[in-house]
Amino acid sequence: MTSKTKALLSVTLAYAITAALGILTYQWSTGATWERFLYADIAMTVWIYAVSVFTRNSSSYDPFWSLIPVYFVAGLMWFEPQAMTPMWTKLLVSVVVTLWGLRLTWNWARGWPGWAHEDWRYVDFRSSQGRLFELTNFFGIHLVPTLMVYLGCLPFFWIFGHPDGLTVPQTASPSTTLMVVGGVISFAGVAFEWVADNALAEFRKRPSPQPTDILQTGIWGVIRHPNYLGEMLFWIGLALSGLAAGAPLWSVAGAIIMILLFLFISIPLKERRMEKGRPDWPEHRKRVRALIPGVY
What we know:
Structural class: mainly alpha
Helix content: 55-70%
Order of helices and strands: HHHHHHHHHHH
């Protein structure tokens, strides 16, 4: 058994415990459905943070981002079913979220070599912050992203018929057109990420790779960050699906936060890293737009 296989098995065990902890927290807690999911989400985050401290590797949190929405969908769809909303809307969102979550988790797993490797951003934080790193680790790497994903998942509580405590339950039928539009946009986001990440994985396996090379073929030759664009489309589509199911306008806050995260944190960090290691990056940036050809 390779070291990577052992590492992935240990991560799988850690997340099996995470799921069990989430279920127990949900069952033992009281309040509205959204509150109990939040308690479970935070309990699971604290556990994964403990794993990161024990392994000295904060990349143990990376699958959390992609698995928790699937966990929420499974809980709302199968363990807390409601007849308030049409089954087809629940199935549409369930399929899209599951495809997104499993694909993103698989992409992380195939690219993660094991516990000897940690995301370059976390490595930078460790080296620059010293003893203060654990504050960043808990709040910045674990808790804040968890709350961001939770806000992005708020539309689920209307889509799956659990708006109790958030707003007056809607009795009108959802907007079929807007629900389909939201589903299509989310699915398009998943497809964007699939194509982009597969192309990047193949690029990394090229013969005689040079660390200064830049992927400039296919979708990567049209925009610089197609995977980030796909991620934003996914969350935008979920927000629209929530509105279609009767969610109030403020429920799109999670999607807006996601967009701001990628525009002002993820993309700038990636751009600075690419510019440091690739002399041709400034010229590439002039020719290829970041997210939308001819616009931005």
